[in-house]
Design brief:
Blueprint (H helix, E strand, L loop, with lengths): L2 H4 L8 E5 L6 E5 L2 H11 L6 E13 L2 E4 L1 H5 L15 E8 L7 E2 L6 E3 L2 H18 L4 E14 L2
Antiparallel strand pairs: 1-2, 1-3, 3-4, 3-8, 5-6, 5-7, 5-8
Length: 155
């Protein structure tokens, strides 16, 4: 999976995996959460990391352009052994493209921000992109907003 696929608003897949302590942090991008839960033990090696199962909720490409996936927000996942209540379940991931021909890449040096609501995440994202564009006007920035479903110790 490429990071650009996560930012493609036309891609119908909803769920993805983020690994907190890996070089390749994003993996498994699927339509159904059951597919991830069924295959993650076979496809993702364990080691000093947490495995976050996430749901795409929105993508902010510039402060004025928000792609929101309301149907994703309404999907109710079944109960699993991985359920843990999250006080701030909405997370934002910053991506940058440094030149037109370069790939869009996640910016791991930028902290992942947590939010209590999608609205809060969207407001934060618009302001973050404004700030980044003022510092790096030639770069393109996008922020993926996702909801943390499961935070799994993957040791």
């Amino acid at each position: 999976m490429t990071e650009e696929q996560l930012l493609d608003v036309k891609d119908a897949r909803t769920y993805f995996v983020y690994l907190t302590n890996r070089q390749n942090q994003f993996s498994m991008f699927e339509r159904n959460v059951a597919d991830i839960l069924e295959r993650m033990h076979d496809e993702i090696s364990t080691g000093s990391t947490n495995l976050w199962v996430m749901k795409r909720i929105g993508i902010i490409h510039c402060p004025e352009t928000l792609s929101y996936f309301p149907d994703n927000e309404l999907i109710v996942e079944g109960k699993t052994i991985y359920d843990k209540p999250q006080k701030q379940p909405y997370l934002t991931f910053l991506f940058s493209k440094n030149a037109p021909a370069s790939p869009t890449l996640h910016s791991p040096h930028e902290a992942i921000a947590r939010h209590a609501s999608f609205e809060s995440a969207a407001e934060f994202s618009a302001e973050k992109i404004r700030s980044m564009k003022s510092r790096y006007p030639d770069h393109d920035f996008s922020i993926l907003c996702a909801k943390l479903l499961y935070d799994i110790d993957w040791h």
